[in-house]
Amino acid sequence: MNLKKLHPFVVLLVLISATATTGCLTVPQNELDELASIGANFLKGYLAQLSIPRQKGSNYEAWNIKLESFNLGAISIKQPKRCQFRICIKGAYLRARADWKAWKKIWFFTLRKSGSLRASGSNIDLCLTIELGTRNGRPYFSYVPKSCYANIGKFDAKVYNTSLKWIVNLIINLFEKRIRDKIEDRICPAVESAMTKNVAKLNQQLLANLHLRG
């Protein structure tokens, strides 16, 4: 079996298969840490492509809201239940951009501005649970549905390349929380989609290349 041709998750499960027990996989901590790192980096690529629907308010509109990067923080893994492993990323951060237009009435006239904004999110926590086990002597990998948790601790959006930035940034401050909340709300669905779409391929590769005893 050529490990170089296998998906990284499969390679890891090949390594831990020697310690398998009936029903569950007993995994040494160093290999659990490797699993967490592989899983986090796997999700990093999906989250970096996250996009948010157009947002509108009484004095603003924002569109083309996209993440430019998602960078990992500290990664940990624990085993809360038999066969289940909780992967957590603490202190991650992201960068996002958006196009916008905003308007604000000042005395007897209305100020109208448009441009692009840059946003950064930090102190991001992201956790999810996976299951590793054996069925009929064969290994399986699965994501535990609705086990994802995401929180953006700090979010800051600013506009550039426009006059009267201080006034426009006051307007931006009124809706940056909405953008933050929308990004936060999209993280777990993106995680669940990524895990669900790839779990069949992972299991297929496992069953084709591994033959574990129960």
TrEMBL record:
Family matches, as PANTHER family: BACTERICIDAL PERMEABILITY-INCREASING BPI PROTEIN-RELATED (PTHR10504), BPI2 DOMAIN-CONTAINING PROTEIN (PTHR10504:SF131)
Residue intervals of the Lipid-binding serum glycoprotein N-terminal domain: 35-193
Lineage: Eukaryota, Metazoa, Chordata, Tunicata, Ascidiacea
Gene3D superfamilies: Bactericidal permeability-increasing protein, domain 1 (3.15.10.10)
Species whose genome carries this gene: Clavelina lepadiformis
Annotated signal sequence range: 1-21
InterPro entries according to UniProt: Bactericidal_perm-incr_a/b_dom (IPR017943), BPI/LBP/Plunc (IPR032942), Lipid-bd_serum_glycop_N (IPR017942)
Protein name: Lipid-binding serum glycoprotein N-terminal domain-containing protein
Statement: the UniProt record of this protein carries the keyword Lipid metabolism: no
Keywords for this protein: Signal
